[in-house]
Design brief:
This protein has about 450 residues and is an alpha/beta fold. It has helices at about 45-55, 90-105, 110-125, 140-150, 175-190, 210-220, 235-245, 250-255, 275-285, 290-295, 305-310, 330-340, 350-355, 360-365, 390-400, 405-415; strands spanning about 1-10, 25-35, 40-45, 60-70, 70-75, 130-135, 155-160, 160, 195-200, 225-230, 265-270, 285-290, 315, 380-385, 425-430, 430-435, 440-444. The protein has 16 helices and 17 strands.
Length: about 450
């Protein structure tokens, strides 16, 4: 298990937004290598020097490709894999018409296992090596996704959804059944192998305060579990929430009252926030997760990346499949760029890629494990063919001739036109977990 990966090595060492010159935020070795031992990064360096230093290591040739840390998707729903691209509804109607119908199926173990496997394969095909995933309310569905991720030894975060009202009874739990199921799942999966648990109240509309408070108590009891939920996605969702919790001054206060707002909390969407809510999220150290393809698809609104970043809130970008329309992080970043353009804010491609690699790892407090090629990190990485399809090659040749070909431009091309066809291979703990057709992993 001693390997040298020969490739064009790229990773972040700092947040580009913190650098006066964003070019100082990353490392790029054109003729580089990752030295891997037993699944961990042992060294990163120039290929020729690593080859002579580690002369007994097996060499794998990816020298034509970019080799970078795998993507981290901080918000996604595996039970919604099959309802991706469901027509014609906005959030609440979309939940009632499509989502709750499909989620009923996950009370059945075999159904859940089949979709869980399909989902994991789709992540790997798109270069995502870690995701924070919702299951359904059924504990069986949470077991199924942890089991499927464990088959590949992925670093994986998931949780059973908490939901005790405003949904069909077959996909509702109760305060007590949810507490019991969560405790069992935490004991079974949290820190089991590379798995971690996220306490997952779906959103304020589908849990009463007693259940939300129970979730807060669980997090207090198991303080390194994550919390994931939705916040301020859609105007009518916000209105209904404030009707249901009429003693709260705003949406965030519902979660604050329940003890669900701290630096382990990941709030998806956050489109319609007040200044006060932004301020309180920042003070709590919570994380806002921007879900661009989903927000466009459901017509939820235009998230202001500029305001959120300027407020100093930790921000990630994620797919939110199945309201999100693609598993591809390239496509997701492409839509984030366009949403910001509509608001007159041009997102740098380095900021975008940081938010789905090292930035996401830092938000998860997992930066000593994933998200970059730091020595000692787990070797989860992807091999990216940035010349596919042909149009990318023409774009590259044009930029080369103009003397403008650089890392930022390469990443920008990927986020503008890339998709799963650009992922040649995905490695988990130094082992190939996915390889595209035609891209064989060759030793040199
Ligand atoms: N709000 C509550 N549940 C969901 C969900 O499944 N998807 C999205 N996009 N928003 C939600
Ligand atoms: Zn979601």
């Amino acid at each position: 298990m001693k390997t040298i990966i020969h490739g064009q090595i790229f990773d972040f060492i700092k947040n580009p937004s913190d650098c006066s010159n964003p070019g100082d935020s990353y490392r790029f070795l054109v003729d580089g290598s990752l030295v891997i031992e037993n699944g961990y990064i042992k060294e990163v360096g120039d290929f020729n020097s690593m080859k002579s230093k580690y002369s007994d290591y097996r060499i794998i040739d990816h020298s034509d490709c970019l080799v970078m840390p795998g993507f981290i998707d901080t918000h996604i729903h595996y039970p919604q894999t099959e309802i991706i691209g469901s027509y014609g509804r906005q959030l609440i109607d979309w939940l009632n018409e499509y989502t709750f119908s499909v989620e009923k199926n996950f009370n059945d173990r075999e159904y859940a296992q089949n979709i869980a496997r399909l989902f994991i394969k789709e992540l790997l095909k798109n270069g995502t090596t870690t995701s924070m995933t919702y299951a359904t309310q059924s504990a069986v569905s949470a077991d199924a996704i942890f089991e499927a991720a464990s088959e590949y030894n992925m670093r994986f975060i998931a949780g059973k959804v908490l939901m005790n009202r405003n949904a069909p009874s077959v996909i509702c739990d109760t305060v007590e059944s949810a507490r019991k199921d969560c405790e069992c799942l935490i004991n079974r999966w949290h820190h089991e192998g590379r798995n971690l648990y996220a306490i997952t109240p779906r959103f304020a509309i589908t849990s009463d305060m007693e259940q939300l408070k129970m979730a807060g108590e669980l997090h207090k009891k198991y303080p390194d579990t994550f919390i994931q939920t939705h916040l301020s996605e859609n105007p009518s969702e916000v209105k209904t929430t404030l009707e249901l919790f009429s003693d709260c001054r705003d949406y965030l206060e519902v979660y604050e009252t329940a003890g669900l707002v701290d630096d382990y909390s990941f709030f998806a969407h956050c489109i319609h926030l007040s200044q006060s809510e932004r301020q309180r999220l920042k003070s709590a150290g919570s994380i806002v997760v921007h879900c661009p393809t989903s927000n466009l698809f459901l017509g939820s609104g235009l998230f202001s990346l500029k305001e959120t970043i300027e407020s100093g809130i930790k921000t990630c970008i994620a797919t939110d499949v199945g309201a999100g329309t693609s598993f591809s992080m390239f496509r997701t970043l492409g839509d984030a760029y366009k949403i910001s353009q509509l608001q007159g804010y041009t997102v740098n491609s380095l900021e975008s890629f940081y938010s789905v690699t090292y930035g996401a790892a830092r938000a998860l407090k997992l930066e000593d494990k994933i998200g970059s090629f730091r020595i000692g990190n787990e070797a989860d990485f992807i091999v990216v063919d940035y010349r596919t399809p042909d149009i990318q090659k023409h774009r590259m040749n044009y930029l080369v001739n103009q003397g403008k070909w650089n890392v930022e431009n390469m990443l920008f091309g990927l986020q503008t036109m890339g998709d799963d066809r650009n992922i040649s291979a995905t490695y988990i703990m130094g082992m190939p977990a996915y390889c595209s057709e035609g891209a064989c992993i060759s030793e040199s």
